[in-house]
Amino acid sequence: MRLTVTQRLSLVFAVLLLLCSGTSAWLQLRSSRMHELEVVQGLSRDLAASIARDTQLTDANGLMPDAVRRLFGRLMVVNPSVEVYLLEPDGRIAGHAAPEGRVKRDRIDLAPVRRLLADEALPILGDDPRSASGRKVFSAAPLRVGDRDVGFIYVVLLGEAHDQLAARGSTQSVLKTALWSIAMVALLCLAAGLVAFTLITRPLRRLTEAVRGFDIHGPPPELPPPVATHSSDEIAVLDGAYRQMVARMTEQWQALTRQDQERRELIANVSHDLRTPLSSLHGYLETLLLKDATLEAGERRRYLQIAIDQSRRVGELAQSLFELARLEYGFVQPDPEAFSMPDLVQDVFQKFELRAQARSVALKASFPPQLAPVRADLGLIERALSNLLDNALRHTPEGGVIEVTLAPAGEALDVTVADTGPGIAPELREGLFQRPFTVGGARRDGGLGLRIVHRILELHGQRITLVDAPGRGASFRFSLPAAF
Question: 234-327 with 336-481: one CATH topology?
Fold first, then answer.
């Protein structure tokens, strides 16, 4: 069974609480025990000195083991928890009143004795003669004969009798009471922790439900408004990051939807553009086939010329589609070089001079002398300028003017192509460089040409805009960086 985050947090918290409670119980019991030892040793610290002062335990020859054994026995009758031992100067046990076989050591470590005699902090634990490894609080005093140290009196303050009494039910009752109190506190803390985890992970559960409702095959879901909070914890950060992701995906979804719609419109418009010349081409060729015997030479030539023009139009459209595809999918990358923009404008004018004369349209170029060269891909910029002039020629009436203006703008050069045609209505300007548009109810062939221009300038890190020019029709402007 897989556990939720809340359940796992609760389980980890319960284990940690159990460890902390056990550690707390152990520390409390140890602290209580050490405090008890400190009190006992502090109260009985001078017991051994008092015994040594009031009782003769030595003679001229040194320690009196037989004499002290009887004294020790009487003292232990008065206070059963006390065990008294007589030590030689090297710590060896010289006399005691313990039953036969109860003493497990023959020597006492004198280092704790010297620490006690030096008045160090209590409690100080010394060796327990009746245990091979035990240590207990004690009282000790030196024994002297004249100027000579003959040994120590060593009093264990909490002996075997105390241990036997402590092992009975009274001590166990205190321990049970302490453990029950700690257990109750632990249960209350666990309940509070579970409630806290439930409240803390509530935003995470809401976020989980939102993620579960995410459909990868459809549009991103609409998220409820964020809960007003000043929290900056990880869950709040995660919720904010998820909302940013959904907002970004919503934008991308809308962009893809818009691009798909534009693609459909482009296909429909291109299909219309292809259908018209192909229908005309098919009609004239069919007429030539059916009426070949009855057509005069001049009429047959006119039909063939119309068919050739329509064929050329289809070819130009196919070439534009191919060029747009290469630009859109990154098959074309600009190769910048420095060149003179006025020279390029003159070269492009020569390409359109005959068409302009045939339509009685004047081509004008306006630029100041000694313009700095620009740095761009010469072929691509020539293609962009040609598309703009071709688009202007298509929609400039007879007697109109097409003007190309070059003007320095800081470290760039502004290029403006303006005509005196009908212009573009404000409601048709949105998406101007992505889809074909109409002017006066008729399609204006600006979709592919302007889209190619837009993509060429994007590859140069520039953009083309439609600007308002009083007294003019459509006016397009773009910038190119100057070559210094």
Answer: no
The highest-level CATH class for domain 336-481 is alpha beta
Q: Which CATH architecture has domain 44-167?
A: 2-Layer Sandwich (3.30)
Question: Which amino acid, residue 12?
Answer: V
Integer Cα distance of 77 and 73 in angstroms? 6
User: Which pLDDT value is given to residue 382?
Assistant: 92
Range of lowest pLDDT (46-55, 202-211, 426-435, 460-469): 426-435
Contacts of 36 (CB under 8 A, 6+ apart): none
Would you identify the CATH topology of the domain 234-327? Helix Hairpins (1.10.287)
Q: How many CB atoms lie within 10 A of CB 335?
A: 10
Give pLDDT, residue 58.
63
- Give pLDDT tens digits for 321-348: 777 777 777 778 889 999 999 999 999 9
Tell me the pLDDT of the chain averaged across its residues: 79
Q: What is the per-residue pLDDT across 124-157, written as a single tens digit (0 to 9) for each? A: 999 999 888 889 999 998 887 777 778 888 888 8
According to the model, what pLDDT value does residue 373 have? 92
In the chain, domain spans: 44-167, 234-327, 336-481
Query: Residue 71 pLDDT > 70, yes or no?
Result: no
Q: Supply 219's token pair.
A: 């549009």
- 171 has a pLDDT exceeding 60: no
Query: What's the confidence (pLDDT) of residue 404?
Result: 93
3-state secondary structure the chain: CCCCHHHHHHHHHHHHHHHHHHHHHHHHHHHHHHHHHHHHHHHCCCHHHHHHHHCCCEECCEECHHHHHHHHHHHHHHCCCCEEEEECCCCEEEEECCCCCCCCCCECCCHHHHHHHCCCCCCCEEECCCCCCCEEEEEEEEEEECCEEEEEEEEECCCHHHHHHHCCHHHHHHHHHHHHHHHHHHHHHHHHHHHHHHHHCHHHHHHHHHHHCCCCCCCCCCCCCCCCCCCCCHHHHHHHHHHHHHHHHHHHHHHHHHHHHHHHHHHHHHHHHHHHHHHHHHHHHHHHHHCCCCCCHHHHHHHHHHHHHHHHHHHHHHHHHHHHHHHHCCCCCCCCEEECHHHHHHHHHHHHHHHHHHCCCEEEEECCCCCCCEEECHHHHHHHHHHHHHHHHHHCCCCCEEEEEEEEECCEEEEEEEECCCCCCHHHCCCCCCCCEEECCEEECCHHHHHHHHHHHHHCCCCCEECCCCCCCCEEEEEEEECC
Decide if pLDDT at 441 tops 50.
no
pLDDT score, position 173 = 63
What is the tens place of the pLDDT at every residue in 349-406? 999 999 899 889 999 999 998 888 999 999 999 999 998 998 889 888 998 999 999 9
